[in-house]
Amino acid sequence: xxxxxxxHHSYARTATPVxxxxxxxxxxxxxxxxxxxxxxxxxxxxxxxxxxxxxxxGCGSGLALLIAAARxxxxxxxxxxxxxxxxxxxxxxxxxxxxxxxxxxxxxxxxGDPSAAAPADGTPYxxxxxxxxxxxxxxxxxxxxxxxxxxxxxxxxxxxxVLTGWGPPERCATAPVLRVxxxxxxxxxxxxxxxxxxxxxxxxxxxxxxxxxxxxxxGRVACPFGYAxxxxxxxxxxxxxxxxxxxxxxxxxxxxxxxxxxxxPHRRRDGTVWMPNVFRYLVCTT
Length: 286
What we know:
By secondary structure, the chain is α/β, with parallel strands linked by helices.
């Protein structure tokens, strides 16, 4: 499986979507799988299995939930993006007549605030995950803190919470490409709608502190972004929402053109695009 990227601000409602339908499908078909190594590493470390009751914050189109359900976990996902959530439902809750049966445990997928995700049987969750990496979008930490404050009361005391973010900029080849979003967003009058910003090494600890969580370990995972061609690379990166403010400040064609130019150093002779990246996760307890 070719690894892929991720970065969408899905913990809180955002401004008017930018080409949301196509973007959600690009996310699910191109970009979301880039973070599969991160999901697998976290689940392996925490021994996720049949005893796990998982609530995923910003579950997107559901790949991380699908992997957890395949390990035997009872999964619930919440997201504020209806297009991505519809794709997650298609994956985890196939309709009548589908050849694919639903994973064990009757997954639940809910639109809105995590407070709406109270366990159906009253048994609290024991694992909360926030797999949308924070750290390079204006307001993403604030949105995650709010989501955690809504979700933590639904978990048992001493439960595990996993926060994720980008690794050191010098180990993320995608960092210079993301700077295109910051440069093109400079003229935007709406800096709080998801514009790019440089990330800090302490972003995850800051969120944990503000949400009242206790850090209990961390790890780094290599998640290279690999694309079949330049068009796929541009579509995948634009699906992350990191470029939304730039699109509103200019237009999608301009952003796509400049992203492609920034990607040129990462294009290989066979036309594929490859960028090594490292992501970081922080394990906390409630």
